[in-house]
Amino acid sequence: MNSSALSARVMPRIVSIARPDSTARKLLEVAAEHGFSVFCDAAERAGLRELLDGPGPFTAFIPTDAAFGMLPDGYLESLLLAPNQPRLIDLLCHHLIARRKTVAEFERWSSLKTLHGNSLAIQSVDRHVMVGIAKLVQPNLHASNAAIHGIDRVNRFPDAR
After folding, report:
1. Whole-prediction pTM value?
2. How many Cα atoms occupy the beta-carbon half-sphere of 89 within 13 Å?
3. 67 or 160: which carries more pLDDT confidence?
C-alpha cells in the first residue's frame, strides 16, 4: 500500500482522537468535562456564562481546582460573595484572551492582552510554558469558541488585595 493511501485511511482516526468533535461544545462545557469545576462555578456566579457561551474566539488559561485551593484561606470564598462580583470578574477575565491561541503559537509573543487589557506574560522556561506565575499543565483543549489551557496557579489580577 502506498503512503498516500495509508495516510487517507489513518488520518481521519488520528484527527478524531487528537481533536474530538467540539462543534457544539462551548468553553465552560469543555472546561467542566476536563475537571475545571471551581473555574466553571466561579464563572457562573460572576455572570460570565453568556460571554463564554458566545462566539469568542477565546484563549482561556484556566487554573486547576488544586490551583484555586492554593489561594490564601478565605480569598476565593470572599470573591464568591455578591458584593465582590466585580473583583471575581476581574480575576477570571485576567485568565481570558480575546483570540484563540494554541501552545504552538505562544513562542511568537512575550505577553498576551487579557480581556481587561492587562498584559499576561508568556515565556518558555526549561521546556515548560509559563503563563504569568503559572505553568501550563493541560494544553490545547478545544471548544468550538476557545482554546483552553489548564494552569497550575491562579494569576491574581494586578490590583488584587
Report:
1. 0.80
2. 13
3. 67
